[in-house]
């Protein structure tokens, strides 16, 4: 009787472990969730003081940023366009310094943002 209980318990624990791994394996990355996370990263860039490496602290203006997910899952800025070069450099340098990664299943996905700094 005792061995039957142990075998039953072992089977139950095995099934729990098996199904918990299967549910994790089926998680599909959501591009909209990643877009929201990138948006939050951009907002946090402007909450901190400007580093001393910028002589001109004028970050006013608009810039358009394109972010691409590489084949290995690394997020990088592929294009920055705007009239204020200080703002463009600031966004590019600080975003790339964050070393952001995601699931490689989203490789090739491009996210475009318009940043308005006042």
Key words describing this protein structure:
118 residues, 3-stranded antiparallel beta sheet, 44% helix, alpha+beta
Description:
A three-stranded antiparallel beta sheet has the order 2-1-3, with helices on one face. It has 118 residues and is α+β, with helices and mostly antiparallel strands. The chain is elongated and about 80 Å long. It has one domain (29-117). Helix content is 44%, strand content 21%.
pLDDT < 50 stretches: 21-26
Strand order of the largest sheet: 2-1-3
Helix content: 40-55%
N- and C-termini, Cα separation: 75 Å
Main β-sheet description: 3 strands, antiparallel
Query: Helix count, per DSSP?
Result: 3
Describe the SSE topology.
Elements: H1 2-25, H2 31-45, E1 61-69, E2 75-82, H3 85-97, E3 110-117
Antiparallel strand pairs: 1-2, 1-3
Describe, in short, the structure shown:
This protein is an alpha+beta fold and 118 residues long. It contains three helices and three strands.
